[in-house]
Amino acid sequence: MSQNTPEKEHIQLSAETLENQEGERLDVAVSKLFSQYSRSRLQQWIKSGHITLDGKAAKTREKVFEGQLVVLDVVLEAEPEAEVAEDIDLDIIYEDDQLLVINKPVGLVVHPGAGNSHGTLLNGLLYHFPALANVPRAGVVHRLDKDTSGLMVVAKTLEAHSSLVNQLQARTVSREYYALVQGVMTAGGTVERNIGRHPTNRQKQAVVEFGGKEAITHYRVVKRFRAHTLVRCKLETGRTHQIRVHMAYIRFPLIGDKTYAGRPKIPKQSDPLFIEVLQQFPRQALHAWKLGLIHPESGEYCEWEVDLAEDIQELMAIMKQDLLDHKHTGA
């Protein structure tokens, strides 16, 4: 794969309006006839004249009748992000004509933004897959924080993009994470508290009593250590920093989370190496290990898993040794 000018995709489709569509608005009718595309994009194509009704340009609110010919004829123009393609290594777990599943490493920002105009996942996607210039945000439909590792899905076509966005909105995409948290949990549970901007620090999110967006995180205990717990979290919603905020809210913040956790919890009589590793762990110990969704083309449920990131595995190995070392001391 190498960088080159993306080919412009030419879409040509036609369909006849049905009996049960009599009297519908044109944009409503075409959203059923060409359901692989989002309604907002179809509305844009109607306004730009790329969708015609019986050979003539029409308006989005125009009423249709049974048996009318609807034609979609459009050449896709590259999205603005196409100017910033960069040669960035990608760990591709799965690929077909519709989807990419990527194992995002720690430290890789997903989207260009303030302070991160280059060197992002989106830049790398545009380099390795130039045709993604024709898809909004180069096919990225959800994100992981810069210092969260693990699985992400990318849409390679407009049809896949529309399908994945709809699945995310319908909450049918399954996303599971491993998190190492401070404190020893007695049992799993569910946090169902709205999340919004922190009232005083605009760089942070927070559980809010009024306003905010619905946020639901299910969690269960996987392994307990002397002062920490490995938990498995399943998202029902996908709010910014959701797991980090919810775990901190129930007083089990993530190890290494400089935004939502305080000082690291050090068990009594800990080995100096263990203390050093805990204090210097450079990022929130959060990894997206499982991803499941309905394939946009086949309609089948697909699921992918990846091993825990190496740095979390190494931290857990030290925790297990610490647990063994103090097994009979009561410390």
Number of strands: 15
The general outline is elongated
CATH class category label of the largest domain: Alpha Beta
Tally of structural domains:
3
Q: Classify the beta-strand content into a percent band.
A: 25-35%
Describe the biggest sheet?
9 strands, mixed
Separate helix tally: 7
Low-confidence stretches: none
CATH fold assignment of the largest domain: Pseudouridine synthase
Give a quick summary of the entry.
21% of the residues lie in helices and 26% in strands. The chain is α+β, with helices and mostly antiparallel strands and 331 residues long.
List the helices and strands and how they pair.
Layout: E1 10-16, H1 26-33, H2 39-47, E2 51-53, E3 56-57, E4 69-75, E5 92-95, E6 99-104, H3 121-128, E7 149-155, H4 158-170, E8 174-182, E9 189-192, E10 195-197, E11 205-207, E12 216-224, E13 228-235, H5 242-249, H6 272-280, E14 286-294, E15 301-305, H7 310-325
Parallel strand pairs: 7-14
Antiparallel strand pairs: 1-4, 2-3, 2-4, 5-6, 6-7, 8-13, 8-14, 9-12, 10-11, 12-13, 14-15
Helix pairs in contact: 1-2
What does this protein look like?
The protein is α+β, with helices and mostly antiparallel strands. It folds into 3 domains: 10-75, RNA-binding S4 domain (Structural Genomics Hypothetical 15.5 Kd Protein In mrcA-pckA Intergenic Region, Chain A), CATH 3.10.290.10; 80-156, Pseudouridine synthase (2-Layer Sandwich); 171-331, Pseudouridine synthase (2-Layer Sandwich), CATH 3.30.2350. The chain has 7 helices and 15 strands. The chain has helices spanning 26-33, 39-47, 121-128, 158-170, 242-249, 272-280, 310-325, and strands spanning 10-16, 51-53, 56-57, 69-75, 92-95, 99-104, 149-155, 174-182, 189-192, 195-197, 205-207, 216-224, 228-235, 286-294, 301-305. The strands form 3 sheets. Strands 5, 6, 7, 8, 9, 12, 13, 14 and 15 form a 9-stranded mixed sheet that branches. A 4-stranded antiparallel sheet has the order 1-4-2-3. A hairpin with a 7-residue loop joins strand 10 (195-197) and strand 11 (205-207). Helix 1 (26-33) crosses helix 2. The mean pLDDT is 89.
